[in-house]
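The records we work with from here on pair a chain with its fold. Taken together, the tokens spell out the fold as the letters spell out the chain. To see the layout at work, look at the sequence and tokens printed below.
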Amino acid sequence: MKILALIGSPRRGGNTDLLVDQILRGCSSRGDGTEKVRLYDVEIEACLDCRRCKRGDHECALADGMREVYPKLDEADVIVFGTPIYWYGPTGKMKLFIDRLRPYIASEKLRGKAGAVVAPSEEGPGCCGPLMEMFRMSFDYLGMEFAGSILARAYEKGEVGEDAEEMNRAYELGRSL
């Protein structure tokens, strides 16, 4: 299997990174291929609602960094969406990315793939309801299967690394994907 992790955090080595890395370690322990893409390193323009992606080849009209990410999504069996909580939702970069998944509605190329969510936040799992509802509805719309989540309480850079229980949960989620 091929696992693609998308990091929607601007902080390298932060809580999102640490948890996603643990998931990828769990996947790798089974021999799965893994790849991580930092969305803040990818130029992602806002969807223009031109609807070109609904016709013909189902390709987005925008010529930006998503052209390099789309083939990775096509090849992946499991997609891990990692984002810290910003105002009870994903980071702006993750939201831009999700908006640009529109070609997959018509092409159905994500149908049957599994998706997992990693979301550390200062308030902990209790504040993740709106984010999780957005992901569940998005996965349903795209025909993806919800494969699990890690919703951890963490705020200061890297502090989740000191939480052995959360790190183990992330590793085990990776092994189970």
Remarks:
- The mean pLDDT is 96.
